[in-house]
Write a structure and sequence with these properties.
A four-stranded antiparallel sheet has the order 1-2-6-5. Strands 3-4 form a two-stranded antiparallel sheet. The protein is elongated and about 95 Å long. Helix content is 38%, strand content 36%. The protein contains two helices and six strands. It is of the alpha+beta class. The protein has helices at 2-38, 69-89, and strands at 43-49, 52-61, 92-103, 109-120, 129-135, 141-148.
Length: 154
Amino acid sequence: MRFPFIFLSLMLALGTQAQNYSSDCAAFTNFLVRMYNSAPFEGVRAVEDNDEAYLISVLALDKEKYKTEAALNRVASVKAMAQASRFFNGSNITQDMIIRTSEKSDGTSDTEIIEKIRENSIGYVKALEQLTNFVRKDGKQVFIFITPLASKND
């Protein structure tokens, strides 16, 4: 008689905890989407929710450039990890500028400026999870990825 009561109590407690986590996650996701819609941005930001701190990586991609939804999601994941890696590990940026001038037969000249920018970053960010994605007013797909930072209790 006791076993079914204990089992039922345990299942009820676990179910309540799962619903609480799910509603907290949904509320946090809605907060981030509202924050983005009020002031759109791309890149990484640190945000706090209760006692936890998170790094979010936000990017927008043009859906028309990708043949499949899987390709779009994979590119979003790789770009989000690259943004997070640059945040955590830094990057090395080099820039070269080439100025070409040519003189025409009528005495005028044309100037062409070529700028080459290279960025190198080394590192890996694991546990970057896609929190949500949605379509922006201009048709671009916005992705929000998240990873926990050290909590305040650590």
